[in-house]
Specification:
- Helices cover about 10% and strands about 40% of the residues.
- By secondary structure, it is mostly beta strands.
- The strands form ten sheets. It has a seven-stranded antiparallel β-sheet, with no helix packed on it.
């Protein structure tokens, strides 16, 4: 795998300007290609471990390194992108669509060895790459850049991957890998903010959950400024990949967990100016759970204590460091400026990575999200590979406990009662979103990715074939209506981002932006969909100058 170091280090000869055909029309693009890495070496203990695994181990065929999960090798700047269908709406706001995701710079460790066990690369662990599409009137431009952390430069100097994976490991590797990382590099996990992105207080922040603080990027060239501490001199214990911005107060609210340190859970509020206004440990939260998302209402922050837990000791007995426990799910309701939950509500064991939204309804707090009855982060390996079809077919079997479905939790703050239920069709969905105007408030519309069986069986990972729109009713127990934008044969998509129409009064008056991938053409596009008529053809399709690998989360920043 090859990519680039900054052009200032490569010299002008490394930057090539050319005209390249992209779906017919031409666009101007500049490419920064990789040079020979600077001299450097890996620590001796790491070299010895890698040499043993290479000699005695079995290479693994990894689903997260092929197809459209494979990294791209170029950092591209392209102007005047061709609109190959429709047109950019006249009233579409000028701004930048950004999408964060993993893109390994060097081939990561993928091996199963005697004694050491398995170290397999996981999607969560790839080097961070930000993709951006700027829309200004009828003109569009594209840029993608690695987020160059100190750990990125360390591996660049060595010319190879150094950090050991910790998500998909077994046996001794479950313990040795984080300890090696910690002893050699000062952190158990690589600094790779590859999960999400938010613009707040005039700063563009790349995010990843855990002990890594947000990374500030420059909007114009996506270069790294450094970690951002919200006005503090020291970092917080950890941060989340999914803070929420209150559309009324302009505050950024978060709930975060610490995988290895203390406290297990803490909450905070950042003012519209980007300065921390409030921070507190949630005293009654004791379980170390992989709390990927959080939710807010007008008054409260919701702590999602689902039983996917982090336990280094469990790996010593042959289990996974990150594993699902058959224990109740808990949701804590914390006043926005409080220091503990005023109530905890117990629900059936289950897990959800992502939520649509939450709101207050009289004495109740209502949360809607994507939930399955169980969760496992790693696929079943056998003889160095995963039986992709057998693994993924389970997720599309009716009643499968692994399938994440639309789910609603209701919590009564007055009498302490609670209830939960699945909503709508029992289809495999995730990556939910709502209009930024209704975050923390009652909402009628939600959007998400809906996964398709056949491409998922082929890839060995969930692949989305549609953007789904839910219209929620006003009555308790009422089922939502469903509409879909289906991408088309051989075309898959990623997370949708809602962009409100300027001056709009209706909640769904706006557009959904979504990146799509055409497998036959091995190419990507940005689609602009009419959020009010989601099943109609795209308002516009913008051809991108290169493939965009499947990634995680994005945002739209008006300019």
């Amino acid at each position: 795998v090859a990519t680039a170091v900054p052009s200032a280090l490569l010299g002008a000869a490394a930057v090539k300007r050319s005209r390249r055909k992209a779906h017919g029309p031409h666009c101007m693009r500049s490419v920064v290609r990789a040079a020979t890495p600077a001299s450097g070496s890996a620590p001796v203990w790491l070299e010895a471990t890698q040499a043993f695994e290479k000699a005695a181990g079995m290479p693994l065929q990894n689903v997260f390194l092929d197809g459209n999960f494979a990294p791209v090798a170029e950092e591209v700047t392209a102007e005047d992108l061709p609109v190959v269908e429709g047109a950019i709406p006249n009233d579409f706001p000028s701004g930048i669509f950004l999408r964060n995701g993993p893109n390994p710079r060097f081939p990561p460790t993928n091996v199963e060895a005697p004694v050491m066990g398995r170290t397999a690369h996981h999607w969560f662990e790839g080097d961070a790459m930000m993709h951006s599409v700027r829309i200004d009137g009828a003109r569009c431009s594209y840029k993608n850049r690695y987020i160059r952390s100190p750990d990125f430069y360390r591996e660049e100097a060595a010319g190879k991957s150094l950090y050991r994976g910790i998500v998909d490991t077994t046996s001794l590797a479950s313990v040795v890998n984080p300890l090696l990382n910690l002893s050699l590099f000062g952190s158990a996990i690589k600094d790779t903010p590859n999960t999400s992105v938010v613009h707040h207080g005039g700063r563009l922040l790349a995010l990843v959950e855990g002990e890594t603080m947000p990374t500030e990027l420059r909007m114009d060239d996506l270069s790294r400024v450094g970690h951002y501490y919200f006005g503090r001199s020291e970092p917080l214990p950890s941060f989340t990949a999914h803070p929420k911005v209150d559309p009324v107060t302009g505050e950024l609210i978060f709930a975060a967990y610490a995988a290895f340190g203390e406290p297990p859970v803490h909450v905070g509020v950042v003012g519209p100016d980007g300065m921390l206004k409030h921070w507190a440990t949630v005293k009654s939260a004791s379980r170390k759970t992989l709390m990927h998302d959080c939710a807010i209402t007008e008054k409260y922050t919701l702590v999602l204590d689902f039983p996917l837990t982090i336990d280094l000791g469990r790996s010593l007995t042959g289990g996974q460091m990150v594993g699902f426990e058959e224990e109740p799910s808990r949701i804590g309701v914390v006043p926005r400026f409080g220091d503990d939950a005023i109530r905890w509500f117990n629900f059936e064991a289950g897990y959800g990575f992502h939520v649509f939204n939450a709101f207050e309804a009289g004495d109740e707090v209502v949360l809607r999200g994507c939930r399955g009855d169980t969760m496992d982060l790693t696929p079943p390996w056998q003889d160095g590979k995963v039986d992709r079809a057998a693994f993924m077919s389970e997720f599309f079997r009716p009643g499968c406990p692994k399938t994440t479905r639309l789910h609603e939790w209701r919590m009564n703050l007055r009498d302490g009662t609670c209830s939960e239920r699945d909503l709508g069709p029992a289809d495999f969905i995730d990556f939910p979103t709502v209009s930024p105007k209704v975050v923390g408030r009652p909402f009628r519309f939600g959007y998400c990715s809906r996964f398709e069986r056949e491409p998922s069986l082929q890839a060995g990972v969930a692949i989305a074939s549609a953007i789904r729109k839910y219209t929620f009713g006003n009555e308790i127990g009422e089922e939502p209506s469903v509409e879909e934008h289906i991408f088309g044969p051989g075309i898959s998509g990623q997370e949708g981002i809602f962009v409100p129409r300027p001056g709009a009064s209706e909640e769904d008056d706006g557009w959904i932006l979504v990146l799509t991938y055409d497998e036959a053409a091995d190419s990507s596009e940005l689609r602009i969909l009419d959020a009010r008529n989601i099943s109609s053809p795209p308002v516009a399709r913008v051809a991108l100058p290169q493939r965009v690998p499947y990634g995680f989360h994005g945002t739209f920043v008006p300019l």
